Batch of 2 targets.
Target 1
Amino acid sequence: MIKNLFTTCLLFTCLSAVAQDIDKDLLRIKKRMDSVQHFTADVQLDLEVPFINMPTKNASMRYTEGEDIAIASDDFMMLPKRGLDFSLSEIFKYPFITVNRGTEERNGNTLKVLNIIPDDEKSNLALATLYLDTISKRIDSSKITTKKEGSYALKMEYNGQDDILPAYVEVVFAIEKLKIPLNFMGSDTDIDRKKMRKMDTKTGKIKLKIDYTKIEYKD
């Protein structure tokens, strides 16, 4: 029995040591993302929520290294709390470990699947699953579960093979009853509150088409 216990402990220690290494492909992608110092873009935004009717909106997007991505518009205000972190800053904010979950085939591409597990109680992240395009060195998609703000999934599409910034982002989110993760302003947006109250779980989708007007890279 003592021998079996020793073997189990040794195996656990070895597995923990392997898991502690941050995946090298993720670090390469992070390095590419860190090369973007600043960008501005025009954005076309569509919202798909069963109880919300909002026409297509246009906005501007701005990012500067070290700051959150900001979206602004003249006729509305929409502030998605999650889903626009192209730089993975939320993941890298606190220590974490990575676990390789193998590969998955999507649209003819072989994607590397990683679990991100936070190693600090201060992190709002509970678990993240990243799907890495290791050939193009960028993120294809991700599934994020937070401690306080629910879960969401991202799908990103790119114009060119060498692009690190996505031209299209789709954010799918699920929220608890009577909690909407967005602030709305705009007289042309209708909310069916009766339908909203009848739904136990609400799911929605944000679609962003992004046209970059300026991108600055580090020297």
Target 2
Amino acid sequence: MADMMNLDGASWSDNYDDIFGDVPDYVRLLVILVDCSGSLEGTLIGSVNSLMEEVLSDMENLSGERRILVITYGDNVTFSNETPQRLDEFGGWKRVHAGGFSNLGEALKMLSKKMENVDWYPKGRKETREIFVLFSDGMATDHYQDGLDLLKKNAVFQRAVRFAVNFSDLMDGEVLENFAGKKEWVLNLKKNDIVKAQKQIIAAISK
């Protein structure tokens, strides 16, 4: 009987890359949602910018293919790209500014729609790790629950590590915990706690 692990005289391992194409062993996906409403104006949105600059700098040292998508929402919802970009293509953190309403529900609905496509981002041959981070005080000005209910039906979102990060003295903790799924994944921080959040997010990505 012919060797089932032999393809035209070559070993399976020799042809592994040819069969599966250019598939990375490990994929790290980071999806960032940033509340750009008026309640985060000034030093609060500045803290978000500072933290994300540090997180992306740390991500450069991680192994595997690193993918990132940034969604900002205020009066409007904006996606940094149609699909998550490789970190080297993303081009560094682009500082965001705050003002206007907080249409969190609309942002979550739009993200849920994109994630219905199972090929929305590449999967690692050995491991895929997904991290979702919401920067917000939880003060949504639309019906956020409708969007979150849609997103929670997605298998990727269900299994992902999800953080909700707040720098404000005022917050709606129920909204943030509902997004994160676990109370310990809600990081209610002050400006000088940026390093703490940075370490937690990077640790979750690199596990």
